[in-house]
Amino acid sequence: MTATRQDTQTPAAARAAARLETLQGIGLITLAIALLSAMDTLVKWLSSDYSTIQIMFFRSVFAFLPLAPLVLRAGWAGSLHTRRLGSHVLRSFFGLSAVGCFFWSLALLPLADATAITFAAPLFVTALSLPLLGEVVRARRWTAVGVGFLGVLVMVQPGIGVFQPAALLPLAAALFLALMVIHVRKLTRTESDTTIVLYYTIVSTLVTGAVVPFYWVTPDLTDFLLLAMVGVLGGTGHLALTAAYRRAEASILAPFDYTAMVWAVLFGFLLWGDLPARNIWLGCVIVIASGIYIIYREAELSLPGGLGRWRRR
Fold it and tell me: How many folded domains does the chain comprise?
């Protein structure tokens, strides 16, 4: 039998190859977060003239463009083959709900504020893993979840005069994202990434396409191109995330997912003059620290799946 290339590598060469793949993964996730953050910025820019439904429709339709090469490579029959259609539909419902809540929040909140609040998603994933996946969640991770939710309360400030009900939208997006992640974890046991993403794109296109005529505003050429770019950026960003998580471990890449806050602050300040208030900064730091700890604990315990590749988009 012919030895594989990995079998013939020296230990030093194998370590060097692993380091290179890790660096490639870091580069890819950094690119992915930049693309998805640019998409969020476009969504906020367009939300003053177009409904959330119409933006979601364009997000779904034009996501087929970057997805098409993967589907053509695997073949339509292979990409669509599944025995778990109901699970795909349920996963798509949670994904659509997450996107809808987040896109709607961008019309009402500063970009950085909405982004920071959605960082609560890993906390929801951990809290729901026991009842929905049967995973054992030990005391240290429950403590991290509790601390993280204190950070969320610092950001949304319920019960005081500055509380904005709109802050509940990105929090709801984080909850729906967590439910989506949990269902994706179940699907990945039998389904390929291409199949999961393809069914989501099909379902989201059909659902938004069915209702978009009631919200339709005909865009001019410039806005049409911007709306199409929302879908291309979202689809390409997801593919880059997938490629990143193939090359490096989730525990290594997860902290780079939070660079979305850097882009959100930058774009929000340059385009709208927004800067997060102190409570957002403080709560964001607490939530990010808790989320990173949870992800590292999952890596130590070898739990399946990873949040970064299945972000709200």
Answer: 1
What are 78-99's pLDDT values in tens digits? 889 888 999 999 999 999 999 9
Q: 231 lies in a domain?
A: yes
Q: The tokens of 47 are what? A: 């939300």
Q: Which two tokens stand for residue 236?
A: 């390409």
Q: pTM score, two decimals?
A: 0.86
User: 39, 233 in Cβ contact below 8 A?
Assistant: yes
In a domain, 7, yes or no: no
Residue 283: partners with Cβ closer than 8 Å, 6 or more residues away: 116, 151, 152, 153, 154, 155, 156
Going by C-alpha positions, the residue among 113, 139, 140, 144 that lies closest to residue 276 is: 113
The answer to whether residue 3 is domain-embedded is no
> 12-36: per-residue pLDDT in tens?
777 777 788 888 888 998 999 999 9
Structural domain boundaries enclosing 103: 22-310
Q: Could you write out the DSSP letters of every residue in 228-246?
A: HHHHHHHHHHHHHHHHHHH
**C-alpha triplet 155, 288, 295: angle, nearest 5°:** 140
Count Cα atoms within 13 angstroms, Cβ side, for 142: 6
pLDDT of residue 1: 43
Structure confidence at residue 311 as a pLDDT band (50, 70, 90): low
Contacts of 144 (CB under 8 A, 6+ apart): 123, 126, 290, 293, 294, 297
What is the length of the chain? 313
- 100 lies in a domain? yes
Is 194 a residue whose pLDDT tops 60? yes
